[in-house]
Amino acid sequence: MARKGPGYAAPVRRILVALLVLLLLGIFLFWQIDSPRAERMRAAVVDRFVPGFEWVMAPVTRLGRMAAGFQSYARLYEQNQELRRELQKMAAWREAAVQLEQENAKLLAQNNVRIDPALTYISGVVLTDSGSAFRQSVLLNVGARDGILDGWATMDGLGLVGRISGVGEATSRVMLLTDPSSRIPVTILPSGQHALLSGDNTALPALEFIESPENLRPGDRVISSGDGGVFPPGLPVGQVALATDGRLRVRLAADYGRLEFLRVLRSHPPEQLADTGLLIPPPTADFIGPPMPPVVTPAPAAEPADD
């Protein structure tokens, strides 16, 4: 078995490490000396050795640039997320602004509708739409506390919508003109003919009991006639249209697809005369023709005298 030689590696390694530490300590102390001569020596060492170590500093420089780029990317990512959040907020604000603009346009359209100046009205907001195959109506947020009465007409910004068919304390129900139970008298212009507009659960209610259908043309205006006191006269209803089945119908002026605000028209019954004695009666008509002979009344017969 061969012998191992004396172990010189460990002592030599310790000596080299000690020398390296002393060398570094000396360089450190030399670099801290505040002396013009030492400064010149340090400058000479830097000029001699540092330019040759650029390849050593290249990885460090590249790593520094990568770190700066990553920090810049992180800042850009945060800014992008912030811009996304701001864009979402702006989209919500834009949607709210569009809705307000639409509501404002509808309210302005209601103000542009020409009705009798003597008619006053109450504006209400449509709460729910309970349209079905057998009943078409909407619910308003005005009721008895606002003075709403059954039978009052309702309009949007374009034309007649229906009438009040049920009143609660804070809400009221509006029966639409398309409801099968709806029947209103109308006048067709320019012919001036009277007819009955009957709802049949379609978007085009039918015209019934027309005096002279041959005098009507598609596009003729249809307004409320006021007959029977159902609605005030002159309210815009729509235009005459010829359906595919050959019947005359009415294309309603009201926008039934977007009923948001409705105007309830106050209509009161005509005043009843309580005292007719104050009226001046008309003069009696004079008889035309030859005068009538005078009427002669016969005298009563004399009674006989008693003996």
TrEMBL record:
<keyword id="KW-0175">Coiled coil</keyword>
<feature type="coiled-coil region">
    <location>
        <begin position="83"/>
        <end position="110"/>
    </location>
</feature>
<dbReference type="Pfam" id="PF04085">
    <property type="entry name" value="MreC"/>
</dbReference>
<feature type="domain" description="Rod shape-determining protein MreC beta-barrel core">
    <location>
        <begin position="126"/>
        <end position="265"/>
    </location>
</feature>
<dbReference type="InterPro" id="IPR042177">
    <property type="entry name" value="Cell/Rod_1"/>
</dbReference>
<dbReference type="InterPro" id="IPR007221">
    <property type="entry name" value="MreC"/>
</dbReference>
<dbReference type="InterPro" id="IPR055342">
    <property type="entry name" value="MreC_beta-barrel_core"/>
</dbReference>
<keyword id="KW-0812">Transmembrane</keyword>
<comment type="similarity">
    <text>Belongs to the MreC family.</text>
</comment>
<keyword id="KW-0472">Membrane</keyword>
<feature type="transmembrane region" description="Helical">
    <location>
        <begin position="12"/>
        <end position="31"/>
    </location>
</feature>
<keyword id="KW-1133">Transmembrane helix</keyword>
<dbReference type="GO" id="GO:0008360">
    <property type="term" value="P:regulation of cell shape"/>
</dbReference>
<dbReference type="GO" id="GO:0005886">
    <property type="term" value="C:plasma membrane"/>
</dbReference>
<dbReference type="InterPro" id="IPR042175">
    <property type="entry name" value="Cell/Rod_MreC_2"/>
</dbReference>
<protein>
    <recommendedName>
        <fullName>Cell shape-determining protein MreC</fullName>
    </recommendedName>
</protein>
<keyword id="KW-0133">Cell shape</keyword>
